[in-house]
Amino acid sequence: MSEEAQPTTVSEAPRASAGIFRGLSGKLLLLTIVFVMLAEVLIFVPSVANMRIRWLQDRLNTVAAAAVVVDGLQNVELPRNVQDDTLMATGTKAIVIRRKDASRMIAAADMPAEIDGEYDTANFTAFAAIRDAFDTLLFGGNRVVRVYGPLGESDAVIELVMADASLHKAMLVYSRNVFFLSIIISLITATLIFLAINRMLIVPIRRMTTSMQEFSNDPSNPARVLVPPEGRDELAVAGQHLASMQRELQRTLKQQKSLAELGLAVSKINHDMRNILSSAQLISDRLAAVDDPVVKRFAPTLLRAIDRAVGYTREVLSYGRTTEAEPHRRFVALKPLVSDVAELLSIDPQSGIEFQIQVQDDLEVDADSEQLFRVVHNICRNAVQALTNHEAEDGRPRMVSVSAMRMGSVVTISVDDTGPGMPPKARENLFAAFRGSARSGGTGLGLAIARELVLAHGGTIALVEKPTPGTLFRIELPDRPVPLDAFRSKARH
User: Fold this and answer.
1) What confidence score (pLDDT) does residue 392 get?
2) Domains of the chain in sequence order
3) pTM
4) How far is CA 75 from CA 93, 102, 105, 349, 425, in A?
5) Which of 222, 286, 359, 366 shows its CA 20 to 30 Å from the CA of 481?
């Protein structure tokens, strides 16, 4: 009774986020605006300090122009009303010219009891200028400061005392203008960067994302494969790799579907084939009892072939699950096994193909005899078929040779032929099922099965290059490690 099928839950593919600011492009736009504003802030800090220094220097230059004229009138003191007009016009409370030997008060009004700060426009550091600028911008407007600097190219110093209300107001206006200008620059820059990056990055990424979503919904549809963009940049290369991967996945899915259909067909055939082979096995057993020299000669080979066929049918479903049965290893005489392979191949004497066995009589291999038989038989059968379909050239012998040797705990088996060799396409997919066939109409299963069985024994199989025409496969099978207890027990005896 079959088990009830359990419902499967298919997770829905993720979809692109709705809304401009939830997507990558919206985030990119916001980040661009933020970064441009941050750049403007970094520019604003030194610029506002520089603006303050220039403003103070301009005020000193304006006062110096008037002070020089008055200073030229020696021992003449300006009338009070003229001083007041001069102070009001320059926005100061006192004007002084200092020299090394003397100082002269040009004009002065009611001086405050305390000066809140002193600033030298000729000698200052960048850090001090930035600090004083933000101090005036944030806390100024109601303070009285003393400002001084060089008087033109002379060694005299012009000094003035003034309220910082005008400076504070000018800095606020400057900051406001810079702020709005930064907003405009940020928006324009962000828009241009957004449009450029959106065209260069976001649109291709969105196109690849859409292609991946559509391909995942219907991977077998060739129309869902991405048409890769032209170019050599990173996104173009990524699109080309994605398209290649999608095409390769479609080929794999198609191959898997063919394998699944083949597995179902083989399972159906296997059911009936076992019944037929069982009947043939009964008839062969009766045939072995017939007292005829020819029958007695061929009956053992026929019986072994049918026994192996029955064994293969039991393992078909195991191979359909992409796994082979675990090898039942024991030490097997290799030469009789290769002789069975030669008899089963039944090479036609008229074909001119010679089968040579170059194996010592006492050479044994630690392997599953049936699986090792399949490995050698598959490779030798391919060699015989290649020689049968290929005409001999220049009188070269048509020969398949199986040789073996033991080196320590490893047995090396070589299957060599004088055929045309492996074509390039077969070499690229040498051990791939349905892709590694060297002849038209072949399935490539023989080498795939041989490789799987050799790997199950912990061995290796490889195609070996040789200077003469033909194909040479080399199989290396190591002995199983001997357990320590078994080794000690054997040593005692």
Assistant:
1) 65
2) 24-191 (no CATH), 328-492 (3.30.565.10)
3) 0.44
4) 21, 13, 11, 142, 112
5) 359
